[in-house]
Write a structure and sequence with these properties.
Order of helices and strands: EHEHEHEHEEHEHEHEHEHEHH
Distance between the termini: 22 Å
CATH class of the largest domain: Alpha Beta
Number of strands: 11
Shape: elongated
Number of helices: 11
Strand order of the largest sheet: 3-2-1-4-5-6-7
Oligomer: single chain
Helix content: 25-40%
């Protein structure tokens, strides 16, 4: 794409849709793109059901509009005309859809707008969704962003009608300054950490970051710890991540397994943490144990490994804004 730098373009308004802003890679990417837009002089709007990351988004200067567009209910159809009005009211240039249910609501709202003037449509395929009509909305964008080579292959296999020219692979990325290989937490954090988790003193710390869901491998971690403990290795494992209300039963299963395996003194479930970077920095080993192929797991990059250029945050932001600019400059389909 031979487009000018995003900062040199006429200011554009980009609206991103997703279920909520609680935690996770989709949510983090949404905020990172909003930050890049604002830094380049553009306008960023995010529509979601809200959550703890809204304050961070608004601190950047982005507009957050709270609508429960991630609620799987027929009543959510009432948000279609509301989304249509929001696009008109805010003179949205780019509509970026990031999750299936909000994508359907946004897409149906977008389809009813004048095809000559409506926003240009971008979708991001963040994962290998079950191939069906419901998931197909994620490849309806005029430009479809795939977060890895695996996702490009997934689209080509399951949605062969999508032209290759519409697909752009953009790796997720991390900030190499924030995730520097020699990073260490400050003394105040270390003191508070040691006071909160005294059982870690003198232990070999293994950390498994990730939301509480079966395919992230938390049960496999318990088996690893049990084997290490059997060899009298002083190990303590941290399961760092929150559990969605629908996953509370699995969190309870993990906690019950910890006790049944006699690992109560060797495994700690920390819950959702805002200081994961610090936790990884003081860990001896950071694991990624996903049992299913991940679209793009950031843990390996965030574990203080120097990222190559294709995997930096700045590169991801620049490529995404270039997709927006390229689409705005492209002729509309007739």
């Amino acid at each position: 794409m031979n487009t000018p730098p995003a900062s040199a373009l006429k200011p554009m308004t980009v609206m991103q849709l997703l279920p909520a802003l609680e935690s996770g890679g989709v949510e983090r990417g949404t905020i990172e793109i909003a930050a890049a837009l604002i830094a380049a002089g553009h306008r960023a709007i995010v529509v979601s059901g809200g959550g703890r990351m809204v304050a961070e988004l608004e601190a950047l200067g982005a507009l957050h509009i709270t609508l429960p567009i991630g609620k799987k209910s027929l009543t959510s159809l009432k948000y279609i005309p509301i989304l249509r009005q929001l696009m008109l009211m805010h003179q949205v240039d780019i509509l970026h859809l990031r999750s299936r249910l909000p994508a359907w609501l946004g897409y149906l709202a977008w389809k009813k707008l004048d095809a000559r003037t409506r926003p240009r449509l971008v979708t991001t395929v963040h994962g290998p969704y079950t191939p069906n009509l419901y998931s197909a909305v994620m490849v309806k964008g005029e430009r479809v962003i795939a977060v890895s080579d695996m996702i490009v292959a997934y689209i080509q296999q399951h949605y062969p009608a999508v032209p290759a020219a519409r697909i752009t692979r953009i790796y997720r990325g991390v900030n190499p300054v924030l995730y520097a290989p020699d990073y260490q937490p400050d003394a105040a954090w270390l003191a508070a950490w040691r006071a909160a988790f005294p059982a870690l003193a003198g232990q070999w710390v293994i950390t498994l970051p990730g939301r509480i869901t079966r395919w992230k491998g938390q049960l496999d971690l318990l088996a690893i710890v049990q084997r290490l403990a059997a060899r009298n290795i002083p190990v303590h494992a941290l399961i760092v991540g929150g559990a969605h209300p629908k996953k509370q039963h699995f969190l309870q299963e993990i906690e019950q397994k910890i006790q049944a395996m006699g690992l109560g003194a060797r495994v700690t479930c920390t819950g959702q943490r805002a200081d994961l970077k610090n936790i990884m920095a003081i860990s001896d080993v950071v694991l990624s144990l996903s049992t299913d192929a991940e679209a793009f797991g950031r843990v390996s990059l965030e574990a203080l490994v120097p990222p190559e250029r294709p995997f930096t945050l700045a590169h991801m932001q620049a490529q995404t804004l270039a997709v927006y600019a390229d689409l705005l400059a492209a002729p509309r389909a007739r």
